[in-house]
Every structure is written in structure tokens, then in C-alpha cells.
Specification:
By secondary structure, the protein is mainly α. It is about 80% helix and about 0% strand. The protein has one domain (about 1-165). α3 packs antiparallel against α4 (about 70-90).
Length: about 170
Amino acid sequence: MNTLKEHWIGMFGLIALCAGIPLEAGAMQNACNIAGVFGLIAYAKVKNNAFFFYLELVVMLSTLLKIFAVSPIILITALIIATSLALLKIFQDPAYRVWDTAFGLIGLSGLVYGYAALSNYGYAVGGVASAIYSIIGFRKGLKSGFIFAILNLIYGGIAIFMIVKG
């Protein structure tokens, strides 16, 4: 029961995002995505998970830009700038200058590409790499890594299913 109390914001974000995946593009899916990403931003902040805090901020930016249907050039430019700023901020902390952060970077890059191009390949690569990064973090004692691992396994799994399904 303590696990539920301790991680409710992250679980809310996970459930909201997963609820939005099968929905048709529109207001309900947008609401689920915004609520889910907001929950994960709050969770990452509360749990002091800087990598996923900045990753989810970039995801929120891409979600909002997609909702407001900005031009592809603005979307891609904004995501490149936001990702670059996030990476600069992340690498200010020496704790992230380790080999396993490569999985996180591949995950972030894949997710950003997926959002920019609406590509299931980007979502799949991003989800799987982020899940690996999350599992490594969880094994190192980062409890929030568990919620992010579940989220990214589901997200990557659905993207892979959509690719295979054609």
C-alpha cells in the first residue's frame, strides 16, 4: 500500500497516457496525453529523476505543438532546441555522465523523432531504449525507474505492434 501512496502521481500519468493510446486523435486523446505527461513531469520532479523530468518536458512541448498543429518546420526546430537544452541541463550533473545514459539518450531521441514525424519506429526505439534505461536506473536504486520502465515498455510494445500490424 505504501508503494501505491508513494507513486500515485506516476501511476496516474501512466494510466492516462495508456488510456489515450487507443483513442482516435481528438480532444479526448489530447486530454489524456496532457494529463498523463503532466502527471509524469510532476512524478519525475517529486522523485528527483532529472533525466525523465526533462524528457517529459520535451514530450509535453511536442504534445502541445501537435495539438495546436504548428507547421512541421516549427515543430522540428522547437524539438531540436528543447532536446538540446534538456541534454545540456542533464549533463551538468556528473551522475548522468555514465554509459547507461546512452540508452536514455537513444530513448529521448527516438521519442522526439516519433513525435516530430508521428513515426511508430521512433516510438518503438524510444520506448524500448527508455525502458532499458529505466530498468538500469531501478536496479541502481531509483524507485521511479519502475514506473517509467512500465510506461516505456507499454509505449514501445504498442508501437512495435502497430509496426508489425502494418
